[in-house]
Write a structure and sequence with these properties.
The protein is mainly alpha-helical and 405 residues long. Among the domains are: 54 residues, Ubiquitin-like (UB roll); 73 residues, Receptor-associated Protein; 102 residues, Up-down Bundle (Receptor-associated Protein). 76% of the residues lie in helices and 5% in strands. It is elongated, with a radius of gyration of 29 Å. The N and C termini lie far apart (74 Å).
């Protein structure tokens, strides 16, 4: 890979150029060997990708896991290169594409410049920097290992972004086909079929039950369809509001993990998040009790949140995490056994990281299998729908044509 850099010499002079190596870290190491202090480093491929796309900087564009990961990685590189934190933040702000993120980074830099701790400065933006992120940064500040904390955060967010990206990517195709199918059916019943069935009605012949059902459904959708879709929209809004409330979220999370096939995916996602988050926090220097509290907040499922908090209370009493987990049917025996081994050997972070990688692969495998299962089912549904229309509409028209001629 080729990287473009901007750096300062020991005399304070600005120097820029390119360096070719295998990674960001290797590029920084090469530049440091030449006694240069790196202030900006970006791969040429990344820059070309940005130039090749037409982008409009929208202030309301969502800041995602990838943005946080890149921010953490590059800030760690600058900080480890002995660039002052304020200068590193402003450098990051200047090269950030999203206007909303750029504004926040500059505000954070101003706060740090005025004497505010970095962790307190980013804590002002919980919509961007989670409790998990803030606490790991605070631990890095206390231990004097801020660069390592940023590296841990970058690795963690990269793994989470990769896993969720693969899940979403696998579901895009079935979702697109499903939406296209619904639209096609709606257009057929509202515009196409009425024109055809009018011929059947005018023929005044006895029509099959299927044909009469299609004509009745078509008339209903044309006359009352807008009410039906309005009710569905209102119902969806109320469901989402109920789902976002404490009671609704608790009930939803309890039953969603019991669904066939889909439930397994949600369970494995929760276990992967638990393992990854707890491993990262422990490696970042947080006490295990505090790490469990934070992990409970970001695990993404209320059922598992309660289990983790219960295990945290057990830790305060001097118990192992595995002691609580083995009593919970939502926790697979594999997880309990591996955590027990990690607790007894003192290698809990490494065991948790292995668990996270295992469940991440399991999620990807199940998602791929689900997509492979959905495709033939959708083809079957489309075939049945087409057959229904052919039998109910096209065949009677052929019969009329045969009678006329």
């Amino acid at each position: 890979m080729k990287f473009e850099y901007i750096a300062r010499t020991p005399k304070g002079e600005i120097q820029s150029g390119t360096v070719e190596t295998s990674s960001y870290e290797a590029a920084v190491e090469i530049l440091q060997r030449h006694k240069l202090i790196v202030t900006s480093l970006r791969s040429v491929e990344e820059k070309k990708g940005m130039i090749g796309e037409f982008r409009i900087p929208l202030p309301f564009k969502r800041i995602n896991l990838r943005d946080i990961s890149i921010f953490s990685r590059q800030l760690a590189i600058l900080f480890s290169s002995e660039v002052p934190l304020v200068e590193a933040l402003r450098t990051m702000g200047n090269q950030t594409e999203k206007a909303a993120f750029k504004e926040k980074i500059f505000k954070i830099a101003d706060d740090v410049d005025s004497g505010t701790a970095f962790s307190k400065a980013i804590a002002k933006y919980p919509e961007v920097f989670s409790t998990f992120y803030v606490n790991l940064i605070r631990a890095g500040e206390v231990s004097g290992k801020l660069s390592e904390s940023l590296e841990h955060l970058a690795d963690h967010h990269e793994r989470q972004y990769e896993m969720m990206g693969k899940i979403k990517g696998a579901m895009y195709y079935p979702a697109f086909i499903f939406v296209a199918l619904i639209l096609a059916v709606a257009i057929m019943f509202i515009f196409v079929i009425p024109a055809i069935t009018s011929i059947l009605v005018e023929s005044q012949q006895s029509l099959p039950v299927i044909t009469r059902a299609i004509i009745g459904l078509t008339n209903f959708l044309r006359q009352w369809g807008w009410i039906l879709f309005s009710l569905l929209a209102v119902g969806l809004v109320f469901f989402l509001r109920w789902r976002s409330g404490p009671k609704g979220r608790k009930i939803w999370d309890k039953y969603i993990i019991r669904l066939p096939i889909l439930g397994k995916i949600f369970i494995k996602i929760a276990l992967s998040r638990f393992s990854s988050n707890l491993s990262t926090l422990i490696k970042g220097g947080l006490p295990i009790s505090r790490a469990m509290e934070i992990t409970a907040e970001v695990v993404g499922n209320e059922t598992y949140k309660e289990i983790i908090l219960e295990a945290e209370e057990g830790i305060r009493r001097g118990e192992f995490i595995s002691a609580t987990f083995k009593m919970k049917k939502e926790i697979p025996p594999l997880v309990t056994q591996m955590i027990l081994i990690g607790e007894k050997t003192g290698k809990l972070p490494a065991v948790l990281e292995n668990l996270s990688q295992f469940y991440q692969k399991e999620v990807e495998r199940i998602t791929e299998n689900l997509v492979n299962l959905i495709e033939p089912i959708m083809i079957l549904v489309i075939g049945v729908g087409v057959g229904f229309i052919v039998v109910g509409v096209i065949m009677p028209i052929y019969q009329i044509a045969g009678t006329v001629f």
